[in-house]
Design goal:
The protein is an alpha/beta fold. Helices cover about 35% and strands about 20% of the residues. It has an eight-stranded mixed sheet with strand order 1-2-4-3-5-6-7-8, sandwiched between helices.
Length: about 250
Amino acid sequence: MMQGKVDTLSFQGRNIYVYTPPSYEREGEVSFPAIYVQDGNYLFMDSIETLEEDFVQGVTQEVIFVGIEPIERNREYTPWKAEPLVKQNYLGGEGDEYLAFITEKVMPFVQSHYRIIRDYAQTGIGGGSFGALISLYAAFQKPGFFGRFALMSTSLWYENFVSFVEKNKLSQENIRIYMYVGEQEGVGRTNLQQYMVPNTKKTYERLKEKVFGGAKDVLLETDPNGVHNHAFFIQYFPHAVQFLYPGLKS
């Protein structure tokens, strides 16, 4: 049974789900870090038992999760226009507008209602698949807003994204990045998705070079049986939160 609390807020035509951890109500003066999560609340709600167990054991710091429901993820979560893999899946490339919406609208709105630490180094962003792609894009496009990144099976097959990572700098110093990919992702595909795993490993190597703390602040986990599926994202999401927000006993 969940020990924390989830509020559903309506904001500019979409739902925002805010999870507050168990001690939020008990400690009325304490502020908490927040992680802004794409695709609504499934990543944290479907793994909440494990997350809260880690909070209780002290291996993960208590955090607030803010789940943002998409309106059209193929537009909002893509950094630039690209040829769709499936004809009807228009890849609209409105990522910059979406990140502006998060940083200029969602974050001030949520911060006005909840006790959230307003320090980029303790502010996270994350998601799965395209939700992870836009979260990694935010590391480059929105310095000074986010310092912790939970990237579950990032769609790093996306056209020109690896070269974007290679060419651009991370300007903030205090960054931690968690990456997960399943070793079976892209297997048997003949389109760009066949490069999912090698592109993830290549990006991991580039990020280790760019992040101020190097290898100690960038972690890549893989699953030998992992496919591109929510079940694997959920399984590894608590690992991401523990790496990004280690508790006193971790």
